[in-house]
Design goal:
By secondary structure, the protein is an alpha/beta fold. It has 10 helices and 9 strands. It has a 3-stranded antiparallel β-sheet. A two-stranded parallel ribbon has the order 1-2. Helix 8 (about 215-230) links the parallel strand 8 and strand 9. The two termini are about 25 Å apart. It binds zinc ion. Zinc ion binds near residues 124, 139 and 140. Zinc ion (ZN) binds next to loops.
């Protein structure tokens, strides 16, 4: 739910307003999932992340979001790190070691315990199929089920609004209890969920500016709520940017011949040409022209 009329999607944030809201150079992150190969949509996100961070003298951390243990593959991770190097996008903190969600079980466990000690966590026996839609109707909240293998864990989400000012979308208000109900923290297979892992990571890593695609805007209210429940007093600021769309109007979800970084490399395009193509695909350039990764801040 967004206040007022349908928002016009701005392409560039007001950098001076963003800088003054941040109060210090931002710490942001590039956080790809190793569930496929990089495509132009990932390159657009990299342009926004590195471009805005560097325009504001900030830092970019790299985090491999492999919380999805079923779909993540080491081969995809190796390929995405190789493609990022080839494109020229480098994390300011380096990647020795590579930061992976799969190595952070202890952090998620500790965050879970803090919520559990506040009596906010309960076991849930519902399958995705039983729940049906996006909103969980809090079926198991009062059942006092044991936490045992095969059951998920949820945190109770009270009613109330989460309001934030997105750096491109403006004022946004969401109601997590109405939108999604009690949040799943760990699924029935024992895997940490995206919403929980990313909130714990952003808190632990001191992320002050989250830059991601507009398809994730519905997650933001729940992550703000969860962050506060985990003790975060100053939430990060958010910027949700436009997505690269297919001609059919769907967002890109997988790389294919004309959008995959691997395929474009193999076809002989340079890194700068691929970055320019991605920038043009969302309107940051009127038409494609080569632009180096080290120059993307000039687009803002
Ligand atoms: Zn349930």
């Amino acid at each position: 739910m967004i206040d007022g009329p349908a928002p016009e999607m701005h392409l560039r944030p007001d950098l001076s307003a963003l800088a003054s809201r941040l109060g210090a150079p931002p710490v942001t992150r590039y956080a790809p999932s190793p569930t496929g190969y990089l495509h132009l949509g990932h390159v657009v996100n990299a342009i926004y992340v590195w471009g805005i961070a560097h325009a504001l003298s900030g830092r970019v951390l790299l985090r491999v979001e492999d919380h999805d243990r079923i779909r993540s593959r080491p081969a995809f991770e190796a390929a995405l790190l190789d493609d990022l190097d080839w494109l020229g996008f480098r994390a300011d903190a380096g990647r020795a070691p590579v930061v992976r969600q799969s190595d952070r079980d202890g952090s998620y466990g500790a965050a879970l315990e803090s919520l559990r000690s506040a009596h906010l966590v309960y076991a849930c026996n519902c399958s995705r199929k039983e729940i049906g839609g996006e909103r969980y109707p809090n079926t198991c909240r009062a059942l006092n089920l044991d936490d045992r293998p095969g059951r998920g864990l949820r945190v109770a989400i009270d009613a109330g609004t989460e309001a934030f000012v997105d750096a491109l979308l403006g004022a946004v208000r969401q109601s997590p209890a109405d939108d999604c109900g009690d949040l799943l923290l760990r699924d029935r297979d024992g895997h940490w969920t995206y919403q929980f892992a990313v909130t714990v990571d952003d808190l632990r890593d001191g992320i002050t500016l989250v830059i991601r695609g507009a398809d994730l805007v519905s997650s933001t209210g729940r992550q703000l709520r969860l962050a506060r429940m985990l003790g975060r007093t100053t939430p990060p600021l958010f910027l949700h940017h436009p997505l690269v769309m297919k001609a059919s109007g769907e967002k890109l979800s997988k790389s294919s011949g004309d959008t995959g970084v691997r395929e474009l490399r193999a076809a002989g395009l340079s890194a700068a040409e691929i970055i320019g193509r991605a920038a043009a695909a969302v309107g940051l350039l009127p038409e494609p022209r080569p632009i180096d990764a080290g120059e993307v801040q000039a687009l803002f």
